[in-house]
Sequence to fold (469 residues):
Amino acid sequence: MPAGSDFLQLRAAEAPAKGLTGWLADGLRGAIAAGRLAPGARLPPTRQLAAELGVSRGVVVQAYQRLVDEGLAGARTGSGTVVARHAAVTPRPPADRRRTLHELRLPLSTPDGIDLNLSPGVPDLSAFPRAAWLRAERVVLDRVTAADLGYGDPGGIPRLRAALAAWLARTRGVLAEADDILVCGGVAQGLALLAQVLTSRGEAAWAVEDPGSRGARDQMLHWRVRPEPVPVDDHGLRVEPLIGTGLRTVLLTPAHQFPTGVVLAPDRRRELLAWAAAGDRLVIEDDYDAEHRYDRAPVAALQGTAPESVAYLGSVSKSLAPGIRLGWLIAPRRLQADLLAAKHASDLGSSALPQLTLAELLANGDYERHLRTVRARQRVHRDALLAGLRAHLPQARVRGVAAGLHLLAELPAGVDDVAFADRIRENGVLVHPLTWHRLLPGPPGLVIGYAAHPPDRLAEAAARLGRAR
Fold:
């Protein structure tokens, strides 16, 4: 299909009184050099272009002929005038994007030379329930209204918020009405909204688990929130050092601590919520992978015990796929109006069709069936990696295996885990040194994801780790 005149970026009102052919030929050359007209592209018919530019057809015919004479275009019977295959395009400077992604250590950014990305947080994208999603999407498209596709409530489509309220109450013990739920673009956007609202209220520093999520800390810094480390032990976040910080906000992963995998002990939960209630403080609960559990009963969310002290975050990034960009934030009601305003200012609201599709999956039971299937599949993956580590890295103490999509291999004292991870990387395997997820010095280890690869590949990865010792 031939192009119109838009590619020329010329205004008829600015055309010179004389030299119209040269003016148009220059515009055509510029479009070819900039890549707006690709090699093989068909130029508009001469009458069409003349009408759009307000010039005579003869001007266009002569301009086209100049391009043909210069070898930049050719005339083809039945195809009109097309850009020559060898027409030069001004090269753009090489993009620096891949290097930036690698520096951010994003889990889905796989550096060159890596064929086994075992970064934590990468789900098994091959398990995405395509058939169920397609069925749900067809149901949604069959009954979607014009209002559903307009600018709706920036907090989320009511149908999804109602479905999430029921689902989270049943599976996570969350206490919320539909209007308490703010649908957002994953946990990342939820954190961003909280950072904007809390910093505007003077909360420019938050306590964080140490070790804890490097990604969450990096995002806090982007939003000018200073992370202050609070140590984690075998029972989770230590509340006494938290009290000692004097801070009013803490971000933590109580159900499955990242990266150690420990569960916040009952006495620590009570101490933490007492700390929050005593001073109008805030606990930000990142429930990032609560659906994935294998060898223990589910641990209820903190939010259900103290909804006015806890901001609860969750998403479908680990259960379905991170590319869907759907999550939820349930905050104390004193923060909800400001968070909704921040969400509206950010993007006017999340995409409607994915929200409606997820609501249908929750309503028809396909989401829950998918989770059961994925849990069984991930258990097999975990067991394969565990067996491989026992065989090839016997000096490591493996922790956090009862739930989640990763495990922690603690290394003997004195091992440089960053250097070890670099040697592993030379063998084509990407893992995280525990040091990446620390603010304070501590014992070495490797944080290893197992969701994204089949058992035979995980066994191969463990063998490569052993060879890197």
Summary: DSSP finds 15 helices and 16 strands in the chain. The two ends are 59 Å apart (CA to CA). The longest strand covers residues 226-233. Residues 366-392 form the longest helix (27 residues).
